[in-house]
Design brief:
alpha/beta; 2 domains; eight-stranded parallel β-barrel; two-stranded antiparallel sheet; 16 helices; 48% helix; 11% strand; globular; binds D-xylulose; binds cobalt (II) ion
C-alpha cells in the first residue's frame, strides 16, 4: 500500500506547552525533561497497543464498525491487509514519538486454516515488524497470545475441560513467547481472558486451578529454556468476558502464585479499568502489588463509574493517576514494565486523527501525574507522616513483638499491670488529602510560572 495513513500529522508530534492551541501537540510530555534525575520517557516507558488502535473497527454488541481504517478493509487479501496495518501502526508510533508498542499474535497476523498456517503467517509478518522496529527505533514492551477470541477457547484455554485445548493454547504461547524473545520484548503478558467460569454447575474449581498452575509452570520453564530475560506478567481482571475470572485482582493472583511456588516467576500487569471492575481503586491495586513484591507493568485506561463494564477509555484524571505514580516511584519506579495504552476511542470518534487526540491526552495526563508524584516524593511530607504513624514498631515493644520474643501471656501481663496503656491517635486523613492537593496545585503553579517565563 505504502501510503501516508495519517496525513493530518506531518512528522513528530511536538511539545507545545499549556498555552499551545494546537491540539496535535503535547502540553506537558517532554521525553527529555528530567524528573527526579531521570528522563520523563524513561520514567513512563509509554507503549501503544495494537489491538484497540489498529484492529478494532469501532463495533459494539449493537452495531458494526464505524472507524475509517483502510488497512482493515475486508476486501483486501489478509496478508496484504496485515502488512498495511503494520505500516499504519509504525507510522503512528513514530509520529506520536513513543518508545514502545504491545501486541497479541492474532492482532498482527491473520488466523490461518490450521495452527501451522497461523504460525507461518505470524512468522512472515514478524520479519516486516523487525524491519519497522529497526527503521523507527520503536521497541516491544510486551507480546501476548490471544487465547480468547477463537471459538475453541470458549470454555477457557489452560482451564478448559478438554486437555487438547490446553495443548493448543500451550503451543500458541510457545510460539508467541519465542516471537516476543525474537523481537527483544521487555515482558511477556498472560491475560486470563476466559480462565474462569460462566456457571459453577459445570465447573470443577480445584481441577481448573491445578491446570492453570501447570500451564504457568510450563511457560516459566520454557522462558528459562529459551533464555528470555524479560518478565512474565499476569494481568488481573475479575470478570468480562466470563462471569468470574480466576485472576481477580493483585491479592488473588499473589495467593495463587504463592500456593503454586510461582511467586518469583510472575509479576502483574495492572489495568486501571480492571481495578474498577474488581471494586478497587487503581491506587489500591498498584499499592497492593508493590507491597507484595509483584508489581510489573501498567495498562493505562479508565472505566466509567456509572456503567460498570470495561469501557477502556483514555485516562484523563491527574488526581487519580498521581497517586498511582506515587506508589510506583515509592516502589523504585518501573523496571521492565511501562505504561501501555490499553485504551480505545469512543465509537463516534471516527477519524484516524482521533487516535492521536486520545493518546496525546493520555500521555499528557501521565506526564502531569508524574510531576505531581515527584513533587510528593520531594516534599516527603506523606512519607514522614507515615513513618511517624508506625514509629512505635521501631521501639522496644514493637520490635519484641515482631521478632517473636514475646508470647501472648507476656503481653497480657504488661497490659494487666497498666504498663501498657495506649491512647488512640488521629489518622489525619483530611490533612493527608490536603497535602496531596497542595502538591497538585504547586505543580500547576510551577508550570504556569515556567510558561510565563518562556512567554516573556
Ligand atoms: C482485556 C485486556 C487485554 C489484555 C491483553 O480486558 O486488558 O487487552 O491487556 O490480552
Ligand atoms: Co489490558
Amino acid at each position: 500500500m505504502n501510503q501516508d495513513f495519517f496525513p493530518d500529522v506531518e512528522g513528530r508530534i511536538p511539545f507545545g506547552g499549556l498555552r499551545s492551541e494546537d491540539p496535535l501537540s503535547f502540553k506537558v510530555y517532554q521525553p527529555d525533561r528530567l524528573v527526579l534525575g531521570k528522563r520523563m520517557e524513561d520514567h513512563l516507558r509509554i507503549a501503544v497497543c495494537y489491538w484497540h488502535s489498529f484492529n478494532w473497527p469501532g463495533s459494539d454488541v449493537f452495531g458494526s464498525g464505524t472507524f475509517d481504517r483502510p488497512w482493515n478493509d475486508p476486501r483486501l487479501d489478509p496478508m496484504i491487509a496485515a502488512r498495511a496495518k503494520l505500516e499504519a501502526a509504525f507510522e503512528f508510533f513514530d509520529k506520536l514519538g513513543v518508545p514502545f508498542f504491545c501486541f497479541h499474535d492474532r492482532d498482527m497476523a491473520p488466523e490461518g486454516a490450521t495452527f501451522a498456517e497461523s504460525t507461518a503467517n505470524l512468522q512472515a509478518i514478524l520479519d516486516d515488524a523487525e524491519a519497522h522496529m529497526a527503521r523507527t527505533g520503536v521497541r516491544l514492551l510486551w507480546g501476548t497470545a490471544n487465547l480468547f477470541s477463537h471459538p475453541r477457547y470458549t470454555a477457557g484455554a489452560a482451564t478448559n475441560p478438554d486437555p487438547e485445548i490446553f495443548a493448543v493454547a500451550a503451543a500458541q504461547v510457545k510460539v508467541m513467547l519465542e516471537a516476543t524473545h525474537r523481537l527483544g520484548g521487555a515482558n511477556y503478558v498472560l491475560w486470563g481472558g476466559r480462565e474462569g467460569y460462566e456457571t459453577l454447575l459445570n465447573t470443577d474449581l480445584a481441577r481448573e486451578e491445578q491446570q492453570l498452575a501447570r500451564f504457568l509452570s510450563l511457560v516459566a520453564e520454557h522462558k528459562h529454556r529459551i533464555g528470555f530475560k524479560g518478565a512474565l506478567l499476569l494481568e488481573p481482571k475479575p470478570q468480562e468476558p466470563t462471569k468470574h475470572q480466576y485472576d481477580y485482582d493483585s491479592a488473588t493472583v499473589y495467593g495463587f502464585l504463592a500456593r503454586h511456588g510461582l511467586e518469583h516467576e510472575y509479576r502483574v500487569n495492572l489495568e486501571a479499568n480492571h481495578a474498577t471492575l474488581a471494586g478497587h481503586s487503581f491506587h489500591h491495586e498498584v499499592a497492593t502489588a508493590v507491597s507484595l513484591g509483584i508489581f510489573g507493568s501498567i495498562d493505562a485506561n479508565r472505566g466509567d463509574y456509572q456503567n460498570g463494564w470495561d469501557t477502556d477509555q483514555f485516562p484523563n484524571s491527574v488526581d487519580e493517576l498521581a497517586l498511582t505514580l506515587y506508589e510506583i516511584l515509592r516502589g523504585g519506579g518501573l523496571t521492565t514494565g511501562g505504561f501501555n495504552f490499553d485504551a480505545k476511542l469512543r465509537r463516534q470518534s471516527l477519524d484516524r486523527t482521533d487516535l492521536f487526540h486520545g493518546h496525546i491526552g493520555g500521555i499528557d495526563t501521565l506526564a502531569r501525574s508524574l510531576l505531581v508524584a515527584a513533587e510528593l516524593i520531594e516534599r516527603g511530607a506523606l512519607e514522614a507522616r507515615r513513618a511517624e504513624r508506625y514509629a512505635g514498631w521501631s521501639g522496644e515493644l514493637g520490635r519484641s513483638i515482631l521478632s517473636g520474643e514475646v508470647l501472648l501471656e507476656m503481653l497480657a501481663g504488661r497490659v494487666l499491670t497498666g504498663e501498657i496503656d495506649p491512647r488512640p491517635v488521629s489518622g489525619r486523613q483530611e490533612l493527608l488529602e490536603n497535602l496531596v492537593n497542595q502538591a497538585i496545585w504547586a505543580v500547576d503553579a510551577a508550570v504556569d510560572a515556567a510558561e510565563d517565563g518562556a512567554a516573556g
